[in-house]
Amino acid sequence: MEIYRRAIAAFRGLVHAHEAIVIGGAGTLAMEMALVNCLQPGDDLLVVTHGVFGDRFAQIGRRFRWNVRTLAPAQPGQAVDPDELARALRGGGFRAVTVTHVDTSTGVRAPVEAYADVLRASDAYFILDGVCATAGLPEPMDAWGVDYLVTTSQKAIGVPPGFALLGLSERALDRRAEMGEAIGAYYADIANWLPVMRDPSGYFATPPTNMVVALERAFRLIEAEGLAERFDRHERQGRAMRAAWSALGLELLAVPGLEAPTLSVLRYPEGVDDAAFRAAAEREGAFLAAGVGALKGHVFRVGHMGNATRGELLTVVAAIESALTACGHPVQAGSGVGAAAALLGAAGEPVRR
Ligand SMILES: Cc1ncc(COP(=O)(O)O)c(C=O)c1O
Questions:
Q1: In angstroms, rounded to a whole number, what is the distance separating the alpha carbons of residues 46 and 42?
Q2: Bridge partners, 69 (sequence order)
Q3: Residue 262 CB–ligand 1 contact under 6 Å
Q4: Which atom of ligand 1 is nearest to the CA of 26?
Q5: Span 53-77, pLDDT tens digits
Q6: Digit-coded pLDDT (tens) for 305-352
Q7: Which residue from 150, 242, 271, 287 lies 20 to 30 Å from 160 (Cα-Cα)?
Q8: Ligand 1 within 6 A of 103 CB?
Q9: Does 163 sit in the ligand 1 pocket, CB within 6 Å?
Q10: 196 Cα distance to chain centroid
Q11: Which of 186, 188, 209, 205 is nearest to 196 (CA)?
Q12: Which residues, including other chains, have CB under 8 Å from residue 279's CB and lie 6 or more apart?
């Protein structure tokens, strides 16, 4: 219980939340929870989407029969212009707006601060999906006016899957109180969880206790590294990986300025087969993720977040070099590794305790 209490407090501090909920589940549960604790039948939901995970908010919204409107850029890899968001909001009436900080399907880092400026003038609840960003990029909920920051344990926090984590604003709590009994959820009802989060010796539903230990340890590692250093390291690692891609002639899907520091989504060079390429990389020790949705077969995805070390990142670049060459796209061995290593310097290692 004491470990659980510390983990909840650490998460709340990390994202500057008024209160936090940390329960067994996946990131998708956290997304759904934010929505069901805000919206009621007949409500309008505005979804700003930069890929498959942004679209997921719209899918949840349709399932609950809210009126869903989506804003998406013209091409994958681009972002919705903040002026377009402002225009959509001028129509008024949206109960909530969702934004995905980093969409893991496209590697786009949303211009969240610009959106936050626009959203300040609106009374819509601001729901931010931090799944592929939290603990790798700053997410000051208070300064950005975020009402729900939803995330999970298995990305930049750096432990196995198992948790849905939510940071809540005071406004979010007021909204839930206003809804009273008119909520179509039980496990996902924050009102059932808040008393346990305030005093983990209470019970609502059984938490994954082994994972509580892992999560609390992860937050201690994050604290030991220092947040400023951790965020800076993610930026540095992102730049280093991009230097490698450029040396290898690989092209990111995300347009310049929107590249996520936490992962790279790369277009396949002409003629390189997805399955063969990823199998070749895996033989060299690197597990690369396939594209999702419409991008499947056209891109591959490389994570460089959490407690990834300099050595691990260079191994991945070396595996990609070999796999490209094995798949008929010869590259000069060591060119990507050299470009990345030059930027990672000696300080690419996070604290490990
Ligand atoms: C940006 C983003 N949001 C939401 C999710 C859903 O999280 P989970 O798979 O834990 O349900 C993912 C999963 O990869 C994601 O990348």
A1: 13
A2: 46
A3: no
A4: 10
A5: 999 999 999 999 999 999 999 999 9
A6: 999 999 999 999 999 999 999 999 999 999 999 999 999 976 545 545
A7: 242
A8: yes
A9: no
A10: 26
A11: 205
A12: none
pTM: 0.97
* C-alpha pair distances (Å), 261 with each of 164, 211, 338: 22, 26, 19
Ligand 1 proximity of 189 Cβ (cutoff 6 Å): no
Give all domains of the chain, ordered by start, each with its CATH number: 2-224 (3.40.640.10), 227-344 (3.90.1150.10)
HEC readout, 34-45? HHHCCCCCCCEE
Dihedral pair phi/psi, residue 99, rounded to 5°? -135, 140
Question: CA 25, CA 28: separation in Å to the nearest integer?
Answer: 8
**Sheet arrangement for strand 299-303:** 251-252, 263-267, 299-303, 289-290
CA of 332 from ligand 1 middle (Å) equals: 35
Burial of 90 (0-12, 13-18, 19+ CB in 10 A): exposed
